């Protein structure tokens, strides 16, 4: 394969991995405290949220990619993956909020910001003392939607570059498996970087740790990308390249 | 006068699990178990290239590798990861997906040109993954990056990446008969699905075997022997499910022995695990939902 194609594939894998890491940092992750409605966010870990939305993104991306015979449009397929992941995150946050509001009886309120940076609503009065916020307030919802979109876009970008016969030309299943592997490795390193809970882009933790997270994502995506390039160079993984 | 009873009590506490329970994994400490599982897993993974190798031998390899992975998860996750135990088990198989795909591709390509010596190429994927796992462990542990400060995280992540890769290669070869990439990518006879698609199932099967034992057993009185019993038990469940799939894809000759072996392992180790739990706990009220042994 031509060196320039290999470089494009490597760059797309690195961009996809870094976008996945950025997406994880944007999600409203509540962890175990959120299960008792004593922290803002959805009551599960980063890995579960991001894997769920990324897998949905890969579903939509692979469905959209089937509209083309061989050379799917990279931008459109990646965007469709982003939209799929965004919808998944949106539904998750909506249902979580329904449970928090009508089940647990709490007001969605951010614990880390005194005033909602987008809607300018005041938050502090509604926060129960000694808790770290509840539910998924507006700013977290926006942040989560953007996080889902960015993460899904990254995952789908890796997928489409691997599946397109103009680039790597893997079979559909192999491309999904490899994209999922790279994405999960990045998402988990981002989860370790966050270390528990995060609310979104307005959280002070985000500014503190995003550089570290993206650096780690760069290194890991680079190494995984080199492995994938070795696999591409063997020429055995393509849909038409089976020996 | 006052010292003697305390010492006696301590000794009693130390002996208690040993005398009541024989599966204590005393000989297989963390290093020995790692070397044993790596050697057994690597030999079986290389030999799994040949379709004539019975599936239940590969099943034994899968169980050894999953046992090793569960031990590594226990080693690293007991200091507290901050995101829950499942994350590190999923990380292991996530690395394993990339490593196994590359390893199988490299092995098949070298085999294509240089004959049967090429089947050692699959181990290249394992070796690459060990390096990537070690580097990600350094990134996670180093003060300059994430700074998790977990002792032995570098080694643990390298081990987990290797275990994940070996598990995926072995499970692929069980479904397809061989990890030769042509067999992995071409559809199963009579079905419109390629064995590589089953990796989605294998992903969570192998990950479950690695993460679930420590996730369910963690706590103040967690004991290594008891936790690892559950790892073998889930290895048995893996073999049952893969045996059913192999019966469809390869036929009863390959699938049924694996299924039977998995069922036997599952029953034996489920009993052993439940017995260990009953013996080591203070009291056990049964809910009646699951038929437990005398509980």
Write down the domain tally of chain B: 1
Tell me the series of helices and strands of chain A, N- to C-terminal.
HHHHEEHHH
The shape of chain B, in one word, is globular
Average residue-wise pLDDT of chain A: 89
Main beta sheet strand tally, sense and closure of chain A:
2 strands, antiparallel
Span of the ends, CA to CA of chain B: 41 Å
Q: What is the CA-based Rg of chain B, rounded?
A: 20 Å
Number of helices of chain B: 10
Task: Describe, in plain words, how this protein is organized in 3D.
The complex is a heterodimer of chains A (243) and B (295). Chain A has helices at 3-26, 31-35, 46-65, 74-104, 138-163, 172-194, 204-234; strands at residues 109-110, 133-134. Chain A is 66% helix and 2% strand. The mean pLDDT of chain A is 89. Chain A has a two-stranded antiparallel ribbon. With 243 residues, chain A is mainly alpha-helical. The two termini of chain A are 17 Å apart. Chain A is built from 7 helices and 2 strands. Chain A is elongated, with a radius of gyration of 19 Å. Chain B is mainly α and 295 residues long. Helix content of chain B is 72%, strand content 0%. In chain B, helix 3 runs antiparallel to helix 6 (153-176), helix 3 runs antiparallel to helix 9 (224-249) and helix 4 (86-114) packs antiparallel against helix 8 (199-217). The two termini of chain B are 41 Å apart. The A-B interface holds A 31, 45-48, 51, 171, 173-174, 176-178, 180-185, 188-189, 191-196, 212, 215-216, 219-220, 223-224, 227-228, 230-231, 234-237, 242-243 and B 81-84, 86-88, 90-91, 94-99, 101-102, 105-106, 108-109, 112, 125, 128-129, 131-132, 135-136, 139-140, 145-146, 148, 181-182, 185-186, 194, 196-197, 199-200, 203.
